[in-house]
Design goal:
This protein has helices at 14-26, 57-63, 81-87, 110-125, 131-142, 153-161; strands at residues 5-9, 30-32, 42-50, 53-54, 65-73, 96-100, 102-103, 144-145. The protein is an alpha/beta fold. The protein folds into two domains: 5-101 and 146-161, Rossmann fold (3-Layer(aba) Sandwich), CATH 3.40.50; 105-144, no CATH class. The strands form two sheets. Strands 1, 2, 3, 4, 5 and 6 form a six-stranded mixed beta sheet that branches. It has a two-stranded antiparallel ribbon with strand order 7-8. Bound molecules: flavin mononucleotide (FMN).
């Protein structure tokens, strides 16, 4: 069965923007998880990456028939698919996508702001950062916005054939 809605969890707004773009492109209705459709609905779930886990995935999985998962991250598009699959305990053939989003530290509060402060400190001390880590470190320091329709091309392709 094709998904009939998109449900998302967003803390600072990047995932919400991605969900809305995906909604426009697929014609599916888009709901924040707090105001989501009825139990059992077949959905695409979108959540932000939080210390290697997909925010609110477990909550969504209990309520919905998830057909695909898309995580938004600091890390470049596609690089966290295996890690996400592992953390969500999804099988090899389950559709999992990851898109680079961004960082807006001015919108972070409490524990999340503290977590990012700690991660920035850790990264600043890390020797021999890879090019990927360097990019993430720069995003942490300066902030940035990588939301684009192009990053959704993988999940859009999957949806066309679902
Ligand atoms: C506490 C915290 C932990 C995070 N952990 C990760 C992570 O493990 N990997 C990653 O790529 N991005 C991580 N991020 C970055 C967010 O996933 C990224 O900024 C995302 O775009 C936020 O989406 P939102 O604006 O919808 O909340 C983390 C952000 C916060 C605040």
């Amino acid at each position: 069965m094709k998904p009939s809605a998109i449900v998302y969890s967003s803390n600072t707004g990047f995932t919400e923007r991605y969900a809305k773009i995906l909604g426009e492109k697929t014609g599916l209705p888009v709901y924040p998880i707090k105001n989501a459709p009825e139990k059992g609905t077949a959905i695409i779930y979108m959540g932000w990456l939080m210390a290697g886990t997909v925010a609110d995935y477990k909550k969504a999985a209990k309520k919905y028939d998830i057909k695909a998962v898309c995580g938004t991250s600091l890390a470049p598009t596609g690089t966290l698919v295996d890690a996400m699959r592992k953390s969500c305990k999804l099988s090899e053939d389950f559709p999992v996508f990851n898109v680079q989003a961004g960082m807006n530290r001015s919108k972070l509060k409490g524990g999340y702001a503290f977590g990012i402060k700690m991660l920035t400190k850790f990264m600043s001390k890390k020797k021999n950062r890879t090019a990927e880590e360097e990019g993430m470190f720069e995003l942490l320091l300066k902030g940035g916005d990588y939301v684009s329709e192009e990053n959704l091309s993988g999940i859009l392709e999957w949806y066309k054939n679902a």
